[in-house]
Amino acid sequence: MAVVYLSLGSNLGERERMLETAVGQLAERAGEMLSRSSVYETEPWGVADQPLYLNCVISMETRLRPLDLLDEIHAIEQRMGRSRNGKPYQPRTIDIDILFYDQLVFRSLQLTIPHPLLHRRSFILVPLMEIAPELMHPLLNRPVKALYAENQDPLTVRKYNTK
Questions:
Q1: Using CA atoms, how far apart are residues 132 and 113, in angstroms rounded to an integer?
Q2: pTM of the prediction?
Q3: Rg of the chain (C-alpha set)
Q4: Catalytic residue among 36, 97, 121, 153
Q5: How far apart (Å, rounded) are the C-alpha atoms in residues 114 and 100?
Q6: 40 contacts 160 by C-beta, under 8 angstroms
Q7: Does the pLDDT of residue 163 top 70, yes or no?
Q8: What is the pLDDT of residues 84-101, one digit of tens each?
């Protein structure tokens, strides 16, 4: 069993429902949920003219290997209406990224673990800090709380009041 940390985001449709559905599908198909952050509303990263995102981070135990987990994530995203057109930073019904997979360092054409930009993105660091401040980044050799303290991403991340 591996412990993985995943980032989930949605800025199209019923954003809150999209996150709930994705969390449920991950629990059914990928492993056992361990923890989940609060939901945060965030500005889009990398572009300006998009609706605001809802984001959260979860941790779970999985038996799936990294590329098998990625395949399952892509299948969930596709079932939930995510279309991939090759353009980065497009609005999406759901986006699920693998942040960490134990302390594994992994690179392939399809996947890089740890996520190569996680330490530069407030929308990842804020919820990750909530559930795993002591988690060590295996390449940067810094805990999440240090990455959070050093982060210079100016985008707004605020706790979202769920219904």
A1: 17
A2: 0.95
A3: 15
A4: 97
A5: 5
A6: yes
A7: no
A8: 776 777 889 999 999 999
CA dist list (Å): 113 to 5, 70, 133, 143: 11, 11, 18, 16
Mean pLDDT of 4-18: 96
Indicate if 97 belongs to the active site: yes
pLDDT confidence band for 139 (50 / 70 / 90): very high
Total residues found in the chain within this entry: 163
Question: Tokens 């009041």 correspond to what residue?
Answer: 161
Task: Single out the catalytic residue among 49, 65, 71, 82.
Answer: 82
Q: Is 84 a known active-site residue?
A: no
Active site residue 17: no
All domains in the chain, ordered by first residue: 2-159 (3.30.70.560)
Q: Tokens standing for 160?
A: 């979202």
